[in-house]
From TrEMBL:
The lineage of its organism: Bacteria, Bacillati, Chloroflexota, Chloroflexia, Chloroflexales. Residues 774-852 form the Carrier domain. It comes from Candidatus Viridilinea halotolerans. This is SDR family NAD(P)-dependent oxidoreductase. It comes from the Bacteria. One of its GO terms (cellular component) is cytoplasm. SUPFAM superfamilies: ACP-like (SSF47336), GroES-like (SSF50129), NAD(P)-binding Rossmann-fold domains (SSF51735).
Length: 892
């Protein structure tokens, strides 16, 4: 999958532009030279102005042809030049809504072309830059200039609001130990770093008195989960709860799901009920969990379980804080910190429902959303200026109530914004003021620090009462579930990273798939384009194995080979009705004909788009005609299928794409562009709630397009996907509904690297044994790797040694993780302010050499918990990317 992480903070001040992005096509000038016959704009091709819907693949072809011609022209000149391919909305960053499906399909084909261009013409130093489609070009000119002037070595960059993102290929499953359909729970192997999370098997828990066993469907993530992983609540867990080991910490505070069993003395809940609530000590990040009945509520009819998972912690916290404790009144002013977060969003709703005026802090890129929600007063959440600005905005009076979740000096600043005699509700945990401190510094103010879990534990009747009040407002439509982004259970790590980077709005929800096996509808029809091709027939076999009985396989030919006839006969022998229909999917009418044949067999429920052709050649030998021929089945075909199935209720629409689109491949620029279009279209469909999945296949053995190259691939020590493996992957991808997944066969040896265990154990000794300069280089390389892990940078060598950590996007929670990693790796303790005191890679290297790695500095023996991480996979994501890129370089 492509995981995208912020890689650097923005330059100082980029005000968000209120204008909307008017042009959704990539900002790329078309080459002036005439296109080859039959190319876009040539005879028989509709122009974009005439028919925007049908013209999208033609526009992609035009853009890629322009890029081809431009690169050919640039390759022939001797003056050094650099090439930026600039798009807007060509990438989907995180889980953002897609503004333009057409723009994303078109832009993704350009990006895929650009990846190959970067491989084939390294002297052009081609860079791909995707601007924010929600912002006008005027508002991003400075961003563009900064990118061009900075000349970063990061190949793929996207800007969204104030954040700069870089694309990386992340291993799947992203969370180790995950097994689809198995009973499991998330476990923290050691405190300190997020990559110490893994799934472990779970024995069915038995509910005790007052408890309910819940099949978990969705879990709302909370900051506390992140703080837990980073070890920032370690002391609290040890002292208050008596939990000493990281493995025993229950992760996940809340959940929504289905009641599986009830314990003694539980009234009001029965097996099969849909419930939501706050969990117990075992944690809710598990396929099943025990929840105290008095913290549960029934999910309102019609509310999805993922929506329900956004309610418990947020709304109970805010209701208790603002209504029960602070008794917020109509007409009062309330300051809500982090108003775009989960608790913040619940607070905005409750405050507005009570008739209060909201003063909100948030990152500026989230202000438009808050304004849409009716919040007039927005302030920056990362500076202390809000205090004075609020006083200015209220004629020096300040707010009546503060809902605080920030720490450090933000607390004093928030008190400064509180009017005389106001109420200060504190829901933070770290570095908060004690009652005595508040009484001394602000004796006039009411001070209400609380921990919801502790309050609920001390008053058994409180939970049911709060729920009853809240659900009355939900039922009346006065309160709604929160905006959220869902991550599947195996992607809990990327979700926590998203929380760490603060890139989301509302809640992050982890979903656990129900363990029902895939059953296709025997009455429905399923279409495979390229269905009598090699992978098409394998796919047909798998669909029939999964229950499909009515198949339409498309081919341009009417005569089948003997092998194809036999394969079709085997499908029929397995009970399927198979129609082989002649159609060129590059033609809209032909695709309509295919769909009519499907409808005659039964309602169309699934599409696998496997039609495709190759026409390899280096860029210098490529032209518009060759590009068009390769894009025709993939891009035009996918587009026709997309637009002609708008009314169909599809369970799946899977595109057979290639790793070439993801990584580039010399000699396959046309094929990469075609597959890129397919990826972009399907990802955009998915983002818009339509069926859409893209599989970036690596080479298959025995059958298909890559067989001709198998000897070459073997010499390169490349793995290949056997047909049996391919069918299993296809099945699993259908079950898991993964939007985009690359299946990349690699051979473990002989390039395998020393394990992380070896690396960690020997690092300090290794550094000590090396001559000074070599030791310094080794340390710096290791630090680059660790920093890159935390910020999600794919190419550690590109990290600027003199860039400030803050500028690289490292905020306080990331700094905690990084310091923990360094301390574990160097087997020492490091000061909490290390990364603030030594804020660049360069200064950190100097400090570590002079003060930490000196033989006199005590070595702290690694803890047992630290050793547990030695079971990590051998290749870190950035190593994996480099490895894969190298392996695929020669895939022609
Ligand atoms: N094999 C691999 O290792 C591999 C790796 C990555 C991705 N893929 C992708 O997986 C898909 C299947 O590959 P494969 O190895 O099975 O190749 P294949 O055996 O050549 O099958 C592709 C099929 O696409 C059909 N096709 C081509 N142009 C068409 C058009 N305009 N209209 C309708 N059908 C058209 C061809 O059918 P007719 O000739 O019968 O018309 C052909 O049978 C391709 O899209 C390929 O890009 C394959």
């Amino acid at each position: 999958s492509i995981a995208e992480n912020p890689i650097a903070a923005p330059p100082a001040a980029f005000p968000p532009s209120p204008t909307t992005w008017a042009r959704r096509r990539p900002v790329l000038r078309q080459a002036q030279e005439p296109l080859a016959e039959g190319g876009p704009g040539g005879e028989g091709h509709p122009s974009i102005a005439e028919n925007p819907i049908a013209a999208t693949p033609a526009a992609a072809l035009a853009a890629c042809t322009a890029l081809l011609h431009l690169s050919q022209a640039l390759a022939s000149i001797t003056t050094p030049v650099r090439l930026w391919v600039v798009t807007a909305g060509a990438q989907r960053v995180g889980e953002e809504a897609v503004v333009s499906l057409e723009g994303m399909a078109l832009g993704a084909s350009l990006w895929a072309f650009g990846r190959t261009l970067a491989l084939e013409e390294p002297q052009l130093a081609c860079r791909l830059l995707d601007l924010d489609p929600a912002d006008g070009l005027d508002g991003q000119v400075e961003t563009l200039l900064a990118e061009v002037q900075h000349a970063s070595s990061t190949l793929q960059v996207a800007w969204r609001g104030m954040l700069r993102w870089g694309a990386t290929v992340a291993p799947w499953p992203a969370t180790p130990g995950y097994a689809p359909h198995a009973a499991q729970r998330l476990q923290l192997e050691r405190y300190g770093a997020l990559d110490a999370l893994r799934y472990v098997p779970l024995a069915t828990p038995i509910p005790g008195a007052g408890e309910v066993l819940v099949d978990v469907a969705a879990v709302g993530l909370n900051l506390r989960d992140l703080l837990n992983c980073l070890g920032l609540l370690q002391e609290h867990y040890a002292q208050v709860l008596g939990i000493q080991r990281a493995q025993d910490v229950g992760l996940g505070l809340e959940a929504a799901g289905i009641v599986a069993a009830v314990g003694a003395g539980v009234d009001g809940y029965a097996v099969g009920d849909r419930v939501m609530g706050i969990g117990g000590l075992m944690g809710t990040l598990a396929t099943q969990t025990l929840m105290p009945a008095n913290r549960l509520a029934h999910v309102p009819a019609g509310m999805a379980l993922a929506d329900a998972a956004t309610l418990p912690i947020t709304f109970l916290t805010v209701w208790y804080g603002l209504v029960e404790l602070a008794s917020l009144q109509p007409g009062e002013r309330v300051l809500i910190h982090a108003a775009a977060g989960g608790v913040g969003q619940a607070a905005v709703q409750i405050a507005q429902m009570r008739g209060a005026t909201v003063f909100a802090t948030a990152s500026p890129n989230k202000w438009p959303l808050l304004r849409q929600q009716g919040v007039q007063h927005c302030f920056h959440s990362r500076t202390l200026d809000f205090a004075q600005e609020i006083l200015d905005a209220t004629g020096g009076q300040g707010v009546d109530v503060v809902l605080n979740s920030l720490n450090g000096e933000f607390i004093a600043a928030s008190f400064a914004a509180l009017r005389h005699g106001g109420r200060f509700v504190e829901i933070g945990k770290r570095e908060i003021w004690s009652l005595a401190e508040a009484a001394e510094r602000r004796p006039d103010a009411g001070y209400f620090p609380f921990d919801l879990l502790e309050v609920l534990a001390s008053d058994a009747a409180l939970g049911p009462r709060l729920w009853q009040e809240l659900l009355g407002h939900v039922a009346a439509g006065r309160l709604r579930s929160l905006p959220h982004v869902c991550y599947s259970a195996d992607a809990v790590l990327p979700a926590l990273r998203m929380m760490q980077q603060g890139g989301h709005v509302g809640k992050l929800v982890i979903t656990f798939a129900p363990s029902a096996p895939l059953r296709l509808d025997p009455q429905a029809s399923y279409l495979i384009t390229g269905g009598v091709g090699a992978l098409g027939l394998q796919t047909a076999q798998q669909l029939v194995a999964d229950g499909a009985r009515r198949l339409v396989l498309s081919s341009r030919r009417t005569e089948l080979s003997a092998a194809q006839q036999q394969a079709v006969a085997e499908l029929e022998a397995a009970g399927a009705t198979v129609a082989v229909v002649g159609a060129d999917v590059g033609e809209g009418d032909a695709v309509q004909h295919l769909l009519d044949r499907c409808a005659a067999l039964g309602p169309l429920r699934g599409i696998v788009h496997a039609a495709g052709v190759l026409d390899d050649g280096m860029l210098a030998a490529q032209n518009a005609t060759r590009l068009a021929e390769v894009m025709r089945p993939k891009a035009d075909g996918a587009w026709h299928l997309h637009r002609l199935t708008v009314g169909c209720e599809l369970d799946f629409f899977v595109g057979f794409s290639s790793t070439t689109a993801l990584l580039g491949a010399s000699g396959q620029s046309n094929y990469a562009a075609a597959n890129g279009f397919l990826d972009g279209l399907l990802l955009a469909r998915r983002a818009q709630g339509l069926a859409g999945q893209s599989i970036n296949w690596g080479p298959w053995s025995e059958v298909g397009l890559a067989v001709a190259r198998s000897a070459h691939l073997q010499r390169q020590n490349m793995g290949m996907i056997s047909p049996a493996q391919g069918r299993v992957f296809f099945h699993n991808i259908l079950v898991q509904k993964t939007p985009q997944l690359a299946v990349i066969p690699t051979q473990a040896t002989p390039r395998s690297k020393p394990s992380r265990a070896d690396k960690r154990t020997h690092l300090r000794h290794e550094l000590a044994a090396l001559p000074h300069q070599a030791s310094r280089s080794r340390l710096e390389a290791w630090l680059r790797g660790e920093i890159s892990q935390v910020i999600g940078l794919a190419a550690p060598h590109t990290l600027d040694a003199n860039a400030g950590f803050m500028d690289l996007g490292i905020d306080s929670l990331m700094a905690v993780e990084l310091r923990n990693r360094l301390a574990a790796g160097l087997e020492c303790t490091l000061h909490p302010t290390l990364l603030f005191d030594y804020p660049t890679l360069e200064s950190l290297v100097v400090y570590l050499i002079e003060h930490v790695l000196k033989p006199s500095h005590p070595v702290v023996p690694p803890k047992a918990e630290v050793r547990a991480a030695d079971e990590q996979p051998e290749l870190a994501p950035h190593d994996l990317l480099a490895f894969i890129a190298q392996e695929f370089k020669d895939l022609t």
